[in-house]
Design brief:
This protein is mainly alpha-helical. The chain has 11 helices and 5 strands, in the order αββαααβββααααααα.
């Protein structure tokens, strides 16, 4: 009897026909060479089986149903936008006047602001949300006291960015990027709307309204996760104390508006039932935005 050729008895890799192998995939049992081997719980698997297995494994989710991410990209992006806007204010000082949040303002021929009811001649003109500049409801949240304010301007953005860095990373990791961004923007909107409702003639700038929304989110998430609330309660006490102390030189209306809106939105995100969770969350966020815009529209109608 003549010996059988080696190529007829030794199997070859199903992906590399010229490579002999004695190892098979533990899942599909196809022969695989060392180049195609992938470690498995038992033995080795081929690349296709590993890919198929990873697709069937359920991905971990945040408490709100978002994707878990280790890098807080949205927080980085929000900080970058705020810092770039601040640098823009140094080059184009008119940015603040053009984009700051103001419900209705009276601008004189000298460019100065005046109380709307005090004086009005053809040389003066009005601006603000009440004149159709609705974009101010959001743009003001990305501006800060200009560099012309000296140390106060630097401290304003530095304190806000430091707080955003510390709070944002925590909240983003618990909500996921998309839900976190929605929370931030809706909190900024709620902050501006309360300013419009209570102090429509007061020009305001700053990310603090949205950041107060993140503070409320931090509290709600901690409650939802059953965390030790002692440290969280101390944090919120300091947070609210700051709002009271700063009421004389900052917009407490903006802080309160962001706080209330952020708490409401976060509650809808983390307490939504798992069944149809995405739908409930979208409806809740859209509902909060619609309510805020309705209140703003009613106030604008009253002002004009």
């Amino acid at each position: 009897m003549e010996p059988t050729p080696q190529s007829a008895t030794t199997p070859t890799c199903y992906r590399h026909a010229d490579t002999e192998t004695h190892i098979s995939c533990t899942r599909c049992e196809r022969p695989i060479c060392p180049q195609c081997m992938r470690d498995a719980a038992v033995g080795f698997q081929c690349p296709e089986c590993v890919h198929e297995g990873s697709r069937s494994v359920r991905q971990a989710r945040t408490v709100a149903g978002g994707r878990i991410s280790a890098v807080p990209l949205v927080t980085y992006a929000l900080m970058a936008v705020n810092i770039l806007a601040y640098l823009g204010e140094t080059v184009f000082p008119g940015i603040v006047e053009r984009l700051q949040m103001v419900g209705i303002g009276l601008v004189g021929p000298d460019g100065g602001r005046y109380v709307y009811q005090d004086v009005f001649t053809p040389d003066y003109h009005t601006d603000g949300v009440a004149t159709g500049e609705w974009y101010r409801l959001l743009t003001g949240a990305f501006l800060h006291l200009p560099p012309t304010e000296g140390l106060f301007g630097v401290l304003h953005i530095a304190l806000n960015m430091w707080t955003l860095w510390n709070l944002g990373r925590i909240v983003e990791s618990q909500l996921g990027r998309v839900r976190y961004l929605a929370l931030y923007l809706i909190s900024a909107l709620g902050s501006s709307v309360l300013v419009l409702l209570i102090a429509p003639e007061a020009p305001t700038v700053g990310a603090s309204g949205a950041i107060f929304g993140l503070g409320a989110a931090y509290y709600v998430i901690a409650r939802r996760l059953g965390a030790d609330m002692r440290g969280v309660n101390r944090f919120m006490a300091y947070f609210l104390l700051w709002m009271l102390i700063s009421a004389g030189f900052t917009s407490w209306q903006g802080h309160l508006g962001g706080l209330l809106t952020g708490g409401l939105v976060t509650a809808a995100l983390v307490y939504a039932p798992r069944r149809r969770r995405d739908t409930v969350q979208v409806v809740a966020c859209v509902g909060v935005v619609a309510l805020a815009l309705l209140l703003a529209a009613l106030k604008v109608a009253a002002l004009t």
